[in-house]
Amino acid sequence: MKRILFAILMAWSVTALAENVQYTMRVDGMACPYCAYGIEKKLKAIEGIQSIDIDLDKGLVIVISDQSVDLSDKKMTSLFQDAGFTFRSMKKAAVVDED
Question: pTM for the whole thing?
Fold first, then answer.
């Protein structure tokens, strides 16, 4: 019984620490700071987005958001296509706040 309670408490504490989500997206067609600005503007319009980092050389867009935000592949494909870019893939990971 103690083991089960311990396992439940551990699972809860890890979930409680993961306050944010990091999305790392691979995007083709970004070549200049103006490209980055256009993407940043579209992503900032989504409520719950906390930060956006764009690496033009690697073709990466890294977004930190609240847990309430769900950036689906379908949604991102549409967003980037509307901006004139090609969405390739996305990885999602919990961000643990260690404060």
Answer: 0.77
Give the pLDDT confidence score for residue 50 in this predicted structure. Answer: 95
pLDDT at 7 over 50: no
Average pLDDT, the chain: 85
Separation of alpha carbons 82 and 42, rounded Å: 10
Q: Which CATH number fits domain 19-96: 3.40.50.2000, 3.30.70.100, 3.40.190.10, 3.40.50.300?
A: 3.30.70.100
- Predicted confidence at residue 6, as pLDDT, reads 47
DSSP strand pairing (60-66 vs 18-28): antiparallel
| Distance (Å, whole) CA 99 – CA 91 | 24
CA distance 65 to 90: 14
Judged by phi (left if over 0) then psi (alpha if -120 to 50, else beta), residue 84 lies in left
Would you kindly state where each structural domain of the chain is located, as residue ranges? 19-96
